[in-house]
Design a protein that fits this description.
Strand 3 (about 35-40) and strand 4 form a beta hairpin. Helix content is about 5%, strand content about 50%. The model has no long low-confidence stretch (mean pLDDT about 80). With about 280 residues, the chain is mainly beta. Strands 1, 3, 4, 5, 6, 7, 8 and 9 form an 8-stranded mixed beta sheet that branches. Strands 2-11-10-21-22-12 form a 6-stranded antiparallel beta sheet, with no helix packed on it. A 6-stranded mixed beta barrel has the order 14-15-20-16-19-18. The longest helix has 6 residues, at about 200-205. It folds into 2 domains: about 10-140, Acid Proteases (Cathepsin D, subunit A, domain 1); about 150-275, Cathepsin D, subunit A, domain 1, CATH 2.40.70. InterPro entries: Peptidase_aspartic_dom_sf (IPR021109).
Length: about 280
Amino acid sequence: MSRQKIYQQPSVDWAPVNHVDYVKTLQTKAVPGINPVVPVLINQQKVDAVLDTGVFISILPNEYLKSGRFKSIGKVSNSFDAEGRSDTGPLVVADNLTIGKTVFHNVIFQTTTAKKTILGLQILKQFPHFHMTDTAVTFDPAAEYDCHRPMLLSSDPSANSAYLVFPVVLDQSVRYEYLDSGNIGDALFFEHVPYFSPEEQKQATSFRALTTTGVGTFLAVYRPMTATVDGIKLTGKVQKALRHIPSLIPDFLLTSALLQHGSFYFDFPTHTLCYK
């Protein structure tokens, strides 16, 4: 007797060109900076979703399971928020996910107690080429970006983390760093540290950031930094956040605030990107 199939292979109905504006109502003072959030349809239900290059399996708040329109295929425990907190929930399959005019079928989501829906690299890297600006994203399968900056994919399945890694010049040193477009704020760079120096403790102030349960408050200090990203010289600040518990999230990240100074062109067939 053959086992009943509970999961069908994913497929995609491609649109020639997809231009999707960010949801402007989410550009709020609660968390300043660029918010790469787009309207999508999940099983024909309207949802606002974060385009997050720091997550692999896309994330869905478990409140959507009440609709009963998702197929469960198991459970998983992952750490994925800014404080490394672990969350457990079923892996589910949505019949369809619509981004602009492109429709994905049989899409896996991790459901969690998070209050936001996240589209991770599991979805984004299926688009051969896409262009992120400070106001919109454009998916164009036939685009020719002529990018030369090497782009790697670093992932940690135990934390559901995946990051696009590429070389940048930070404080005159060449380093491969992680791009996390889901890290929203007004600082170009985000750094986790286990402790502050006595001087930093005096300077530390609370800041607001998106976490698994919405907007939370953390302790942080800022320091200046110069960087060169694909030939563009930037002068900005690093937000050093105090990490109270161990986390598998990288200690240093480039944030979505870089979109205030340029835009990213991702070319997955050639594993390259441009920032200009």
